[in-house]
Design brief:
Blueprint lengths: L2 E3 L4 H8 L2 H5 L2 E5 L4 E7 L5 E3 L9 E2 L1 E4 L5 E3 L1 H4 L1 H4 L4 E3 L9 H4 L9 E2 L10 E3 L2 E3 L1 H20 L5 E6 L5 H13 L3 E7 H8 L10 E8 L4 E9 L2 E10 L4 H15 L4 H6 L1 H17 L5 E6 L2 E6 H25 L9 E5 L6 H11 L12 H13 L16 E5 L3 E6 L7 E7 L9 E7 L9 E8 L12 E7 L5 E7 L5 E6 L7 H13 L1 H30 L6 H17 L5 H36 L1
Parallel strand pairs: 2-12, 12-13, 14-19
Antiparallel strand pairs: 1-16, 2-3, 3-4, 3-5, 6-7, 6-8, 9-10, 10-11, 14-15, 15-16, 17-18, 20-21, 20-23, 22-25, 23-24, 25-26, 26-27
Bound molecules: adenosine-5'-diphosphate and magnesium ion.
The site of adenosine-5'-diphosphate has 21 residues, from helix 9 and helix 11.
């Protein structure tokens, strides 16, 4: 369960107000979507408004195309390459944000571009040409495009933003979104849940005295989610979420295409070979779907193929998908211990809720009219803009709660800061994360606690350091070390470290704000904005290096232990690749390091399988003798 508190950054906004550079800057609200993204702001009349960069439209398709010469385009222009150059056209990157390959493995066929599967547990990377990109970098490209459009349209620099995320996003996905913002040159003041933003856009939750339970039904291009929120004293709490990350308007388009193929007895095989026709059909289907919102018949043709469909037929085709979304609503209500009649307001979000049959089905399910007065594909961005207005202190009617002014975290490999409690979290709060060791037989673990916004701990403020001693000797990666941060109402931070397999435990207490003046907090924030881009680049380099070092360590150990299963030339070749990997460690070139990791991994993967097979065979033999 996630809570999203509708609270301004009390202390910080006052501090920042004295910084002249900050005050003039406007804060935008950004909906970073799977299919489409957009940016909104509060206009001089105090109203939320979507930003339309002349000639480019409002919605920016979340698609990036990389050309051979290294140049790239984002948005509508990139979308055209989806069929003509699929390997170099990235879509749906939001599905990969903060995920490991293990998380997405079963959907790998969905992606037409190359998702690297070297490591099941670390965050995924994408390969385009011979460059490696993280989903964070790719999302940053989309955010940068939005930032530039906003700057162009509003003729003012944009450096601060509120970005929305799905209510079901976990900590790692939220952190990845925040990093993407940073990389795009944006100071992300707050991450807001998409349903919370939609609610704000409708003005629900702005009055501190109102108490309401609402349902937000969000049907986008390829994803569906429903959230049940409770609003009390201007605080939004997510009671339940449900959904299907592979269900959306694209399914409606596919249903129409399938219908046309069936009606015209089109040959599937020749269709799969004719990408242009397949894409043409898809586009016509989307056109038909939109047209059938206001007319009863769509009747056109493509290359002599008649393409007709009635509204009634369309509604019949999408019935199973609609039923599926309603089942999700049912589950969400059950998890929240509520019945449809307990829901005070129902809000429609996502382009696909423009289809009248969708609205009707949802209204019938909840037994009340739904909110559809605003454009459903704009509400999230509009709400994010309203949240930014609250943060800017322009809405004095909103309750102020105490928040932590700087992020708190610990040092991880390579001297990186791993944030556990992000700045602006409402106090009291607690958060935790699990870690492991990187070296075999490690029995002590130094835990260093830091405060600040920079990616490298050396730039942040050290609060405490202690040793977790007496971890039983285990191979690297096996110990499970839980680190919990507890920040109480008085601002005292308790850090607890526990090795779960042995129960070894240690804790310290510190007061993070002790000896810290408002000016220092402000300076730390300003520094983090000034260095944001370099910081993220450095973090990525360190992460790649850490991964390369780990790979070298593991491969070395593997070759030493399993030499008897390998041919001499295999050992030789592996050793050579290992040396190349080691040589790349000091190159400062992250793509080179990752390329060497991939090469060594690809080459040695069959050996690992061979050793595994032998181990299994031996174990089986052991059984037979028993
Ligand atoms: P996401 O939140 O996934 O980024 P959106 O909310 O922008 O996506 O929704 C995109 C989907 O909305 C697409 O499948 C698109 O075809 C659909 N859509 C847009 N306009 C209409 C319309 N008028 N009628 C039906 N579906 C629509
Ligand atoms: Mg959306």
């Amino acid at each position: 369960m996630y809570s999203n508190y509708l609270t301004p950054m009390a202390k910080v906004s006052i501090n920042l107000a004295t910084g002249s550079l900050q005050k003039e800057d406007l804060i935008v609200g950004i909906d970073l979507g799977t299919t489409n993204s957009l940016v909104a702001f509060i206009n001089p009349d105090g109203k939320a408004q979507v930003i339309n960069d002349t000639g480019k439209g409002e919605l920016v398709p979340s698609v990036i195309h990389f050309a051979k010469d290294g140049s790239l385009v984002v948005g509508n222009q990139a979308k055209e390459f989806l069929t003509t150059d699929p390997q170099n056209t990235i879509f749906s990157v939001k599905r990969l944000l903060g995920r490991s390959y293990g998380d997405i493995a079963k959907h790998r066929d969905f992606f037409s571009y190359k998702v690297i599967d070297d490591n099941q547990e670390s965050l995924v990377k994408i390969k385009v040409g011979d460059k490696f990109y993280t989903p964070i970098e790719l999302s940053a490209l989309i955010l940068k495009e939005l930032k530039e459009r906003a700057e162009h349209a509003l003729k003012t620099p944009v450096t601060r933003a509120v970005i929305t995320v799905p209510a079901y996003f976990n900590d790692s996905q939220r952190q990845a979104t925040r990093d993407a913002g940073k990389l795009a040159g944006l100071d992300v003041l707050r991450m807001v849940n998409e349903p919370t933003a939609a609610s704000l856009a409708y003005g629900i939750g702005l009055n501190p005295n109102e108490e309401k339970t609402i349902a937000v039904y969000d049907l986008g291009g390829g994803t569906f989610d429903v959230s049940i929120l409770q609003i009390q004293n201007g605080i939004f709490e997510v009671l339940a979420t449900n959904g299907n990350t592979f269900l959306g308007g694209d399914d409606f388009d596919r249903a129409i295409v399938d219908y046309w193929i069936h009606e015209n007895k089109l040959d599937l095989k020749s269709l799969s070979e004719n990408q242009e026709l397949a894409q043409g059909l898809r586009l016509k289907a989307e056109e038909a779907k939109k047209a059938l919102g206001s007319q009863n018949l769509f009747n056109e043709s493509l290359k002599g193929i008649p393409l007709a469909i009635s509204k009634q037929k369309f509604e019949e085709l999408i019935q199973p998908k609609l039923a599926e979304t309603l089942a999700c609503c049912q589950y969400a209500l059950r998890d929240a211990n509520l019945k449809p009649e307990n829901i005070d307001e129902v809000i429609m979000v996502g382009g696909s809720t423009r289809t009248p049959a969708v609205k009707q089905a949802v209204a019938a399910f909840f037994g009340k009219p739904v909110h559809d007065e605003l454009n459903p594909d704009e509400v999230v961005a509009l709400g994010a803009a309203i949240q930014s207005d609250i943060l800017a202190g322009n809405r004095s009617d909103i309750l102020l709660l105490d928040v932590t002014p700087l992020s708190l975290g610990i040092e991880t490999m390579g001297g990186l800061m791993d944030v556990i409690i992000a700045r602006n979290a409402k106090i009291p709060t607690k958060a935790g994360r699990q870690y492991t060791t990187s070296v075999d037989g490690q029995v002590n673990l130094k835990i260093s606690v830091y405060q600040g916004e920079r990616d490298l701990v050396q730039e942040n403020r050290k609060l405490a350091e202690f040793d977790l001693k007496g971890i039983p000797a285990m191979p690297a990666g096996l110990p499970k070390i839980d680190i919990n941060f507890l920040l109480n109402a008085d601002g005292i931070l308790t850090v607890q470290a526990t090795e779960l397999r042995s129960g070894v435990k240690q804790e310290v207490e510190v007061k993070p704000t002790y000896g810290l003046s408002d000016e220092e907090v402000e300076q730390m924030l300003l520094d983090s904005i000034a260095h944001a881009k370099d910081d993220v680049a450095q973090r990525m380099l360190i992460e790649a290096r850490t991964e390369a070092e780990q790979m070298a360590y593991t491969a070395d150990r593997f070759l030493a232990k399993n030499a008897q299963f390998l041919q001499e030339f295999e050992i030789l070749q592996s050793r050579q690749l290992l040396e190349q990997l080691r040589a790349s460690l000091n190159s400062g070139d992250k793509d080179l390091m990752l390329k060497q990791v991939e090469a060594l991994n690809e080459y040695t993967r069959p050996f690992a399988e061979r050793v595994m097979d032998v181990a299994i065979a031996t174990a089986m033999k052991g059984k037979q003798i028993d």
